[in-house]
Amino acid sequence: MRDRLRHLHQVQTDSEGFSTVELDSLSEQGPAGPHPDQEVDAVLQHAQEIRLEIQRIQHDISELKDVNYLALNQTSYPSVTKRDSSAVGADIKRRGEAVLQQLHKMNATREDLEARRGGSDPTARIARTQYQCLSNALHEVMFSYSDTEMSHREACKRQIQRHFEVVGRDVGEEELEDMIESGQWNVFGVQVEGRTAQSALLQIESRHKELLELERRIQAIQELFLDVALLTEEQGVAVENIQKNVQTTQASVQEGITQLERAAETDKNNPFKKLFCGCFPCYYN
After folding, report:
1. pLDDT by residue (tens digit) across 17-34?
2. How many distinct structural domains can be found in the chain?
3. pTM, whole model, 2 decimals?
4. Which domain holds residue 70?
């Protein structure tokens, strides 16, 4: 009776809801590895930091669209938009590279969790899911930036063609591309008169300068585009491997069930068991 009372006293919970037995055992064990909940919190916090940085890239892309619109419409930059397109593009490149580096770290964490706990562990699955979702998010936002730059390039080309029409020149798509690449504008050697024609020539020069800056931005970030594309391609291979493993596991389980059913049927038809059933009725069922 005394031993029972001592045991009840040990398992009595304190005001915080923890068992004194659990606290004593933890103190005796000393410092241990990270608690699963702590590792989950660390994974989710890291994912949230990456997600916020991707949102900042989206904000930069929205600002770039506004700056490009103002440039095409000859509107001066408002006080809230003090950066030009090159400055915004540089920030997008910097943030994209930082996010890519953080995703590599998250992938290393995922691999460590799967190595220590197995791929079916909840924390490992959370890390894997976060990594896949954020990798896809970075892919989408970076190619949204690429689409924004390419759309602006086409808008500049259309505006250049309209200005060529003002000075009496019809320029085709291929000829315009050659002029953009070479920087040789044949129309500049033609004597033009009138304020409208002179303004058109100035606009052609301005758009050409803008296209050159755009090309430099694209070339500077081209390596990042390739890294992001490779990242999502690796994700596709990983997903395919997971699907194959799941299908293999399902096939193995189904085969095991079939074998169990056959074994049960064979056991039921066992002649020795039928022989003993007459002597021992308890085996009949």
Report:
1. 433 333 343 334 444 455
2. 1
3. 0.67
4. 36-183+195-222
